[in-house]
C-alpha cells in the first residue's frame, strides 16, 4: 500500500473584516495551500471533502493544529444566512438548551414552618381563656420576642392577672429580655402598682440587662404615674451615678412629673437646662410636656413662648399642645386668646375633641362669658360630652 505523506500545516488567523463572517470554510483554506505544494486532502480520502462550518476561534499558539475533520458525510446543510450561524455552533455537540431570555424566574424566600407555628401559638395564647393550658400547649415553641407581644396584649387590655402570670412563666423558663422587663414595669405603673414594679426591678440579677436605659425609664414612669415624684428624682440621680446616660424619654418622663407637684416649673426648667447641656435637643414631646407644666404652674406667658418657639423650630402642634396652651389661658379666663388659638387649630386641619371643648368652656366660665358658655354646653350635650361639665356654669 502506497504511503502518503501528509504535511502538517499551521493556519494563521485571517484578518477580520467588518462585513466578514465569523466562520471559516476549511476546504477553501486547503485549496489555497495547494498552490504552495501542499497535497489536497480530498485525494487521501475515498470521498470528496465535505463542506462544514466551524465557529471561529483565535489560534493562541503556534503549535495549534487544524480542527479534526468529520469521517462521514453529513446530511445536507441549509446554507441560508439564518441557519449557518446555528449550524456552526452545533456541529460537534448537542444543542445547548437555555431558558428563554424574556422569561424571568423570581426566587421566593420560603416561609419557615416554625414561623407559622409561632404565629399560631401567639394567637392561641391571646385568645385563650385558660393561660396555663395555652402555655403547656404552645409555650415551648415561643421565643422571648413572641411572648413580649402577648405580654403587651394583656397589658393594653388591662388583664393584670394574665400579665403577671405570663411574666412569671417567662422568668421561670428563661424566656425573657430587657423589653420584657420594660413592658411589664410600665404596665405595673399603669395598673397603679409601683411597689410591684420596684420589686421586679430590684430582682433583676443580670447586671448587663439591668443597666438598660429603657428599663430605668419604665421605672421612672411608674413612679411618676403613681405620684411618687421625689422617688423618681432620687432614682434619676442613682441612674446617673451608676454610669447610665439619660435620653430624651428620661427627661420627658420627669417633666411630666413636674406638672403634678408644687413648684414643678422651677424643677422643669432645671431639667431642660441639664438636657440641653448634655447635647440632647428639644422635640415636640418635650415642648408639649413643658407647656403643660407651665399651665399647671400658672406660667401663661412662658407656655405661650414655648408654644410659638416650637412652631418656629418646625414642629407642628397637635391637639395636646393646643389643649395645654388653652389650659394656660383658662387660668385667668383669657377668652380672646383662647378663641384665636381654637381658630388657628381649625385652620391647621385639626378637629376639636372633648378635651379642647371642655377646656374652652372653662375659659368662658372664668372669663365671665356665661352666654357663650351655655352655647358651648349645648354643643357638648349634642356630642355626649356634657355630663360632667354642667357644674362649671353657675346658675343665674
From TrEMBL:
InterPro entries: PPR_rpt, PROP1-like_PPR_dom, TPR-like_helical_dom_sf. The keyword Disulfide bond does not apply. Residues 20-30, 60-90 have a biased composition (Low complexity). It comes from the Eukaryota. PPR repeats lie at residues 212-246, 247-282, 283-317, 318-352. Coiled coil: none annotated. This is PROP1-like PPR domain-containing protein. Residues 1-13 have a biased composition (Basic residues). Belongs to the PPR family. P subfamily. The keyword Magnesium does not apply. Residues 232-379 form the PROP1-like PPR domain.
